[in-house]
Amino acid sequence: MSDEKAKTRKNNVNGHKGELAEKLADMNVKIGAPKFNYKDYLRVLKLARKPTREEFKTISKISILGIALIGMLGFIIYVFLTELPKAF
Protein backbone atom coordinates (compact mmCIF):
# COMPACT_ATOMS: atom_id res chain seq x y z
CA MET A 1 0.00 0.00 0.00
CA SER A 2 1.42 3.39 -0.91
CA ASP A 3 2.13 5.99 1.76
CA GLU A 4 -0.63 8.27 0.46
CA LYS A 5 -3.23 5.49 0.59
CA ALA A 6 -2.06 4.51 4.06
CA LYS A 7 -2.46 8.08 5.31
CA THR A 8 -5.91 8.36 3.73
CA ARG A 9 -6.95 5.09 5.29
CA LYS A 10 -5.48 6.11 8.63
CA ASN A 11 -7.36 9.43 8.64
CA ASN A 12 -10.61 8.18 7.19
CA VAL A 13 -11.57 4.64 8.25
CA ASN A 14 -15.03 3.85 6.84
CA GLY A 15 -15.80 7.54 6.44
CA HIS A 16 -15.41 8.37 10.14
CA LYS A 17 -12.47 10.46 11.32
CA GLY A 18 -11.26 10.31 14.85
CA GLU A 19 -8.78 9.03 17.35
CA LEU A 20 -10.31 5.56 17.52
CA ALA A 21 -10.26 5.26 13.74
CA GLU A 22 -6.57 6.18 13.74
CA LYS A 23 -5.77 3.57 16.38
CA LEU A 24 -7.68 0.89 14.51
CA ALA A 25 -5.90 1.79 11.29
CA ASP A 26 -2.54 1.59 13.07
CA MET A 27 -3.38 -1.89 14.35
CA ASN A 28 -4.60 -3.01 10.91
CA VAL A 29 -7.89 -4.13 12.46
CA LYS A 30 -10.71 -4.35 9.97
CA ILE A 31 -13.48 -3.09 12.22
CA GLY A 32 -15.84 -0.50 10.84
CA ALA A 33 -18.37 1.79 12.42
CA PRO A 34 -21.83 0.27 12.89
CA LYS A 35 -24.27 0.99 10.10
CA PHE A 36 -27.58 2.58 10.99
CA ASN A 37 -30.77 1.87 9.14
CA TYR A 38 -32.92 4.93 9.78
CA LYS A 39 -36.04 3.24 8.39
CA ASP A 40 -36.14 0.91 11.41
CA TYR A 41 -35.94 3.85 13.81
CA LEU A 42 -38.64 5.76 11.96
CA ARG A 43 -40.93 2.72 12.06
CA VAL A 44 -40.51 2.43 15.84
CA LEU A 45 -41.18 6.15 16.31
CA LYS A 46 -44.35 5.92 14.22
CA LEU A 47 -45.62 3.05 16.37
CA ALA A 48 -44.76 4.80 19.64
CA ARG A 49 -47.45 6.66 21.51
CA LYS A 50 -47.69 8.81 24.61
CA PRO A 51 -48.51 6.72 27.70
CA THR A 52 -51.76 7.33 29.58
CA ARG A 53 -51.64 8.86 33.04
CA GLU A 54 -52.21 5.44 34.66
CA GLU A 55 -49.42 3.81 32.65
CA PHE A 56 -47.06 6.63 33.58
CA LYS A 57 -47.93 6.35 37.29
CA THR A 58 -47.40 2.57 37.24
CA ILE A 59 -44.05 2.85 35.46
CA SER A 60 -42.95 5.60 37.86
CA LYS A 61 -43.89 3.56 40.95
CA ILE A 62 -42.04 0.49 39.70
CA SER A 63 -38.96 2.55 38.81
CA ILE A 64 -38.87 4.27 42.19
CA LEU A 65 -39.31 0.94 43.97
CA GLY A 66 -36.46 -0.60 41.97
CA ILE A 67 -34.12 2.32 42.65
CA ALA A 68 -34.98 2.18 46.38
CA LEU A 69 -34.34 -1.58 46.56
CA ILE A 70 -30.98 -1.29 44.82
CA GLY A 71 -30.05 1.63 47.10
CA MET A 72 -30.96 -0.33 50.23
CA LEU A 73 -29.02 -3.35 49.01
CA GLY A 74 -25.98 -1.15 48.37
CA PHE A 75 -26.28 0.41 51.82
CA ILE A 76 -26.51 -3.00 53.51
CA ILE A 77 -23.42 -4.20 51.64
CA TYR A 78 -21.63 -0.99 52.61
CA VAL A 79 -22.47 -1.50 56.30
CA PHE A 80 -21.36 -5.13 56.26
CA LEU A 81 -18.05 -4.37 54.56
CA THR A 82 -17.05 -1.14 56.31
CA GLU A 83 -18.85 -0.44 59.56
CA LEU A 84 -19.43 -3.96 60.88
CA PRO A 85 -15.72 -4.92 60.99
CA LYS A 86 -15.01 -1.78 63.04
CA ALA A 87 -17.45 -3.00 65.70
CA PHE A 88 -15.39 -6.13 66.40
Automatic annotation (TrEMBL):
Record membrane topology: Single-pass membrane protein
Localization: Cell membrane; Endomembrane system
Signal sequence range: none
The keyword Transmembrane is annotated on this UniProt entry: yes
Stretches that traverse the bilayer: 62-81
Keywords on record: Cell membrane, Membrane, Protein transport, Translocation, Transmembrane, Transmembrane helix, Transport
Chief place where the protein resides: membrane
InterPro entries for the chain: Prot_translocase_SecE_dom_sf, Translocase_Sec61-g, Translocase_SecE/Sec61-g
Family: Belongs to the SecE/SEC61-gamma family.
Subunit composition and interactions: Component of the Sec protein translocase complex. Heterotrimer consisting of SecY (alpha), SecG (beta) and SecE (gamma) subunits. The heterotrimers can form oligomers, although 1 heterotrimer is thought to be able to translocate proteins. Interacts with the ribosome. May interact with SecDF, and other proteins may be involved.
Entry function: Essential subunit of the Sec protein translocation channel SecYEG. Clamps together the 2 halves of SecY. May contact the channel plug during translocation.
NCBIfam families the record matches: secE_euk_arch (TIGR00327)
Record's protein name: Protein translocase subunit SecE
Lineage: Archaea, Methanobacteriati, Methanobacteriota, Stenosarchaea group, Methanomicrobia
